[in-house]
Design goal:
By secondary structure, the protein is an alpha/beta fold. It has 6 helices and 20 strands.
Length: about 325
């Protein structure tokens, strides 16, 4: 599907980005930004992806996320230091890989803030970025169609929905309203009159907070309290349970030193393959057995779990990381 925006809607989108930057404490127009995501362009053409690309105004540094090997990450870190960034914005997985590489090298790089979007910000991503960059991490929720957008504030207790521009709802699989708890997110956009989207299913599952709830930051927007993953990022157990990616990082939560990165593959036969990149404390037999057991216990299921050890987990062609892959 192709989405159409007019000039007014483009201004609304920019206002949402400005609010996000303001919540994070950075100046959208004065601070120097490094953007970590996608494929950089230079002179209207795709640039190489193994080095940073400066914007024409020389106040933005673009780091591509489609080829983040250790050698490329080391080159990116040199570019980052040479550029002198004030803050970072980009894909959560790409920003995390930079942070993880810094920590693996025993280094840090101070920033005002890290602003993440586009793919899921897992707790271990946030922890690594906070340690590596010495600052807060502020997540943004949105889609290409901008039907439902929300920004994280300094309280880090959910994301404030941009309620001036949309009416969010949660529904069950039959399309009936869900009054409490996690449901499928749908939204009616109030600003894009060129292509109105009414009760549009954004493809994610999540939970909405109450209206007019107080937040320590002083704002009173309704919040998006949690995201449970995309509809196509759901594991189904033999017992009939459906589990989203927001929960599936839990088995690795206490194994950070043993597991550097992970990805679930739900095979066509219904079983799971858990791909992992070894961490510094990895012990092959013990770690793999503990992980398989932890996944089954977390899912409360007898589902078959195989653990596959890999050097790296590739991103999709757009540079984003996919935590759950479903084989057809």
């Amino acid at each position: 599907m192709e989405f159409v925006f007019d000039a007014r809607m483009d201004g609304v989108r920019r206002a949402h980005w400005w609010r996000w930057s303001d919540m994070a404490g950075v100046d959208l127009y004065r601070d120097r930004m490094v953007y970590c995501g996608g494929i950089p362009y230079q002179g209207g053409r795709r640039a190489v992806v193994d080095r940073g690309v400066l914007s024409p105004t020389r106040d933005r540094l673009h780091l591509g996320t489609t080829k983040m090997t250790d050698a490329v990450l080391d080159r990116f870190l040199k570019d980052l230091r040479r550029f002198g960034a004030d803050y970072m914005r980009g894909y959560a997985s790409g920003c995390y890989l930079l942070a993880r590489r810094l920590l693996d090298r025993g280094e840090t790089y101070p920033l005002k803030a890290v602003l993440t979007s586009s793919d899921t910000l897992y707790p271990q991503y946030r922890e690594a970025m906070t340690e590596a960059f010495g600052c807060g991490v502020f997540d943004h929720y949105g889609q290409n169609e901008d039907s439902l957008t929300a920004n994280e504030c300094v309280a880090h207790t959910g994301m404030h929905i941009n309620v001036e521009s949309c009416i969010p709802e949660t529904v069950d699989d039959a399309g009936e309203s869900v009054q409490a708890g996690v449901g499928r997110l749908v939204s009616t956009h109030l600003m894009n009159t060129t292509m109105p989207l009414i009760r549009y299913a954004v493809g994610d599952r999540g939970e909405l907070g109450p209206f007019d709830a107080d937040c320590p930051c002083g704002r009173h927007h309704q919040k998006l309290l949690n995201l449970d993953g995309r509809d196509d990022e759901i594991i189904e157990t033999p017992e009939g349970a459906r589990v989203g990616c927001g929960s599936l990082n839990q088995p690795m939560k206490h194994m950070a030193g043993q597991v550097g990165a992970s990805q679930y593959i739900q095979r066509a036969d219904g079983g799971l393959t858990l791909r992992i990149v070894p961490g510094p404390d990895f012990q092959k037999d013990a770690t793999c057995a503990a992980l398989a057991r932890a996944v089954q216990e977390h899912l409360e299921s007898a589902i078959a779990v195989d653990v596959e050890v890999v050097d790296r987990i590739p991103t999709r062609p757009n540079g984003k990381f996919q935590f759950i892959v479903r084989e057809s």
